[in-house]
From TrEMBL:
Spans traversing the lipid bilayer: none
Organism: Herbaspirillum robiniae
InterPro entries: Aminotrans_3, Aminotrans_3_PPA_site, Class-III_PLP-dep_AT, Orn_aminotrans, PyrdxlP-dep_Trfase, PyrdxlP-dep_Trfase_major, PyrdxlP-dep_Trfase_small
Lineage of source species: Bacteria, Pseudomonadati, Pseudomonadota, Betaproteobacteria, Burkholderiales
NCBIfam families named among the record's database cross-references: Orn_aminotrans (TIGR01885)
Cofactor field: pyridoxal 5'-phosphate
Pfam families given in the database record: Aminotran_3
Protein name: ornithine aminotransferase
CDD domains, A to Z: OAT_like
Key words of the record: Aminotransferase, Pyridoxal phosphate, Transferase
GO biological process, one term: L-proline biosynthetic process
Gene3D superfamilies noted in UniProt: Aspartate Aminotransferase, domain 1, Type I PLP-dependent aspartate aminotransferase-like (Major domain)
Molecular function in Gene Ontology: identical protein binding; ornithine aminotransferase activity; pyridoxal phosphate binding
Pathway it works in: Amino-acid biosynthesis; L-proline biosynthesis; L-glutamate 5-semialdehyde from L-ornithine: step 1/1
EC numbers on record: 2.6.1.13
Amino acid sequence: MNARISNPHVELEERYCAHNYAPLPVVLSRGEGVWLWDDHGRRYLDMMSAYSAVSFGHAHPRLVAALAGQARRLAVTSRAFYSDRLGLFLQRLCEMTAMPRALPMNSGAEAVETAIKAARKWGYRRRGVPDGQARIVVCRGNFAGRTTTIVGFSSEAQYRDGFGPFDGGFDSVPFGDAEALEAAITPHTVAFLVEPIQGEGGIVTPPDGYLRRCREICSRHGVLMICDEVQTGLGRTGKLLACDHEGIRPDGLVLGKALGGGLLPVSAFLASNEVMEVFAPGDHGSTFGGNALSAAVGYEALGLLQDGELFANTREQGHRLAEGLRRIQHPALREIRGRGLMLGMELDPRFIRARTFCERLMTCGVLSKETHETVVRLAPPLVIGSEETDFALQAIRDVFQGLPHHHA
Ligand SMILES: *Cc1c(COP(=O)(O)O)cnc(C)c1O
């Protein structure tokens, strides 16, 4: 369908870009706060936030100032040298998350890869697991990025299809089932990698107490608990970390997306000294990881979270949005899931596919994207206000009102 709308920018992308996405037919050219504008000047409310990377809104003045100022001073030197930005950024990151040490990377997938390497080497060096035999437990429905190792432990057929062989070393258990985790642990298990809420998997929330039980099981078996908070972290669920809702600290923490302030790819793997000690100079690295520009923007992004106001707003607007959705009485709306401003609507596909729902929302001035066939994600920038939340709700109600009350 995209190829059929006649727009020169769409045609160029379709002509030259790999077709590894299926964008909605809108050409964006400007963003400010929670709003985006297309190439015809039409305005849309962003209920997608670039998969939660734009938590602070588009073109946040403090973040743009940090970016521009640092770009003029110093941007990329590689970690062959120290910079006057990286230490300050990581100090703030470690102090805010109460994790002792950080390894800076760029994309979320790279930080997850870093976590996997750290866990395996820790297993060999500290736990005495025979070389090459470390195993990591993951959850079905996980999403942790698109590298070959990561798609190798995905349960999504399309993510894997055609990209093997996969090396293994991963065991899958159902998400939300702590007993299944315990049953899957063997003497060679070094880590359990888990998202506190599965984002790409369809905004799937585990039962209350799940993370706490997993924490206890991991501690008892000497297995590292590694939380992938690339999407749930940095305020998305109404607290700094989704782990905070259950009062636990993992042994390893992966952050990304919003850490770059919606301007740059910035990610990090955080862990204890004991885990991070496995890395010696030359073991692991990244040309751009921890560069001064990323560090300056990441530092400022964390600064925007320090007073906690954004968390309070996230809880308030998340509640307003969820309550408004719950008042919609339509048989096509099966379930509302999530926490804070990480919400998903599960639709009955006999009425409408999630993709079609998003296309109709777009014509009502709201941008979002489906995850899987049946879930529409609702994850605006955390700076959203009540009027804007109500605007989103009205558009959603309008789309439901256009649907029949009985499926075909
Ligand atoms: C998006 C995401 C990643 C991967 O991040 P990229 O920057 O796209 O590589 C990893 N884990 C989770 C939970 C994510 O949502």
